[in-house]
Amino acid sequence: xxxxxxxxxxxxxxxxxxxxxxxxxxxxxxxxxxxxxxxxxxxxxxxxxxxxxxxxxxxxxxxxxxxxxxxxxxxxxxxxxxxxxxxxxxxxxxxxxxxxxxxxxx
Amino acid sequence: xxxxxxxxxxxxxxxxxxxxxxxxxxxxxxxxxxxxxxxxxxxxxxxxxxxxxxxxxxxxxxxxxxxxxxxxxxxxxxxxxxxxxxxxxxxxxxxxxxxxxxxxxxxxxxxxxxxxxxxxxxxxxxxxxxxxxxxxxxxxxxxxxxxxxxxxxxxx
Lengths: 106, 156
Known about the structure:
The complex is a heterodimer of chains A (106) and B (156). Chain A is built from no helices and 8 strands. Chain A has 106 residues and is mostly beta strands. With 156 residues, chain B is an alpha+beta fold. Chain B has 2 domains: 1-36; 39-151, Immunoglobulin-like. In chain B, strands 1, 3, 5, 6, 8 and 9 form a 6-stranded mixed beta sheet that branches. Chain B has a 3-stranded antiparallel beta sheet with strand order 2-4-7, with no helix packed on it. In chain B, β8 (128-136) and β9 form a beta hairpin. The termini of chain B are far apart. The interface between A and B is large, with 37 and 39 residues. β5 (71-77) of chain A pairs antiparallel with β7 (117-122) of chain B.
């Protein structure tokens, strides 16, 4: 899939500001198909892990209430320009998504 | 002719039963794979149970958690929530929407130099308190802020 995630990591002082936008429908399971009147089954990202140079900095579990095309912003201390931030995500159907970005100067 | 049709129906019915069995098997293996996902907390349908099952039970009210949310959200499908915990030793941050059918929206564990800060967007079915809970030094703390929702964003 093209462009599963868009990421940006910007060093500001000694803190790196990371922004991640994922492409995902985030279907709650409570919405009805307007044509059939049947409930659309849930389909949502439920686990997200972010690493800095291979070390876990963020380990998240999500429910159905995260908005469509999810966005997360987080901050990491101690990263240097060029350090690698990787985000891995998986949805409730087992589909995996990932993205990576190098820390950039402001 | 009629006999042939009978036989065909019978065999296709059996094939259907096998398909259902495979389907059930697949669902089961999926559940095993997602064993670490806190299903109990994410399916809890009231704020007290959701907090308890997510390990934030008995949380102390704290003004050291700062929530930034809009006072009024025109569209409940995407409400910005920005959280900073000023409690030293914060190890996790959870976001709850009290009036959603299942209040727990997300639970973030932070480690290895991550700041106690999270920015994300949540769905809100109706006007509700947005509650944040954090764990720090083995204790739970919480604070909430109301967001008025003009158009709900949880389906229907």
